[in-house]
Design a protein that fits this description.
The chain is α+β, with helices and mostly antiparallel strands. The protein is built from 6 helices and 4 strands, in the order H-H-E-H-E-H-E-H-E-H. Helices cover 35% and strands 16% of the residues. Helix 2 packs antiparallel against helix 4. 33% of the residues are buried. The structure holds flavin mononucleotide. The site of flavin mononucleotide has 10 residues, from strand 3.
């Protein structure tokens, strides 16, 4: 698969079979996050790879929007360090995107569970502390997301994208 195909084929997958993930596939996926670019090339993001399904079940309770993690075969927690880079959030999200595309390349389903968000301080703190406890993550790391992975057990319909011309402007931004 080339990068364009992986981008076209990628979908949010939240239904996984109970088949274990080939460890070599998982290693390649993790490596894609590790090799993602970072602002000023500063090492602001780190990952925790979890394959213990009991831990994944508990972690799925971190937010109301991550129940699917309970049925996954692996979770990659993506963390960021505000003390290392002002781009910690962007770095973590770009790495998450790489993880998602690499999962498509490896024929695995994946979904992104948001832990950190900037709407308020209370909800992210609640979500982060749940994940932090389960994975022993130090307090100076922000917990941005959990990417859940597994063998695909669903067949999502092709995605209805918004009209291209509404979202892409050439030369100048135009009101539609
Ligand atoms: C910043 C961000 C946060 C997201 N948070 C969640 C989440 O907490 N739970 C979830 O199930 N999906 C989450 N998603 C996945 C989106 O819901 C999904 O990408 C969107 O519906 C489009 O579907 P697609 O991934 O198949 O293109 C998130 C995606 C992004 C980019």
């Amino acid at each position: 698969m080339n990068v364009h195909k992986a981008i076209e084929n990628r979908r949010k997958i939240t239904s996984f079979s109970s088949q274990k993930i080939d460890p070599e596939k998982l290693d390649r996926i993790v490596k894609s996050g590790y090799m993602a670019p970072a602002g000023n090339n500063l090492p602001s993001r780190e990952f925790v790879v979890i394959t213990d399904t009991e831990v994944l079940k508990e972690m799925s309770e971190a937010t109301p929007f991550m129940k699917w993690l309970a049925g996954s075969q692996a979770g990659i927690v993506v963390t960021g360090r505000p003390d290392v880079s002002k781009y910690w959030l962007q770095d973590a999200l770009i790495a998450s995107g790489f993880l998602r595309l690499a999962s498509t390349e490896e024929d695995l389903g994946a979904a992104f569970g948001a832990i950190y968000h900037s709407e308020d301080e209370v909800e992210p703190e609640k979500r982060e502390s749940h994940v932090r406890k389960l994975a022993d993550i130090p307090i100076d790391r922000r917990i941005v997301a959990v990417v859940g992975l597994g063998q695909v057990d669903e067949n999502p319909k092709p995605k209805d994208h918004l009209p291209f011309e509404e979202m892409v402007h050439y030369v100048k931004f135009k009101d539609s």
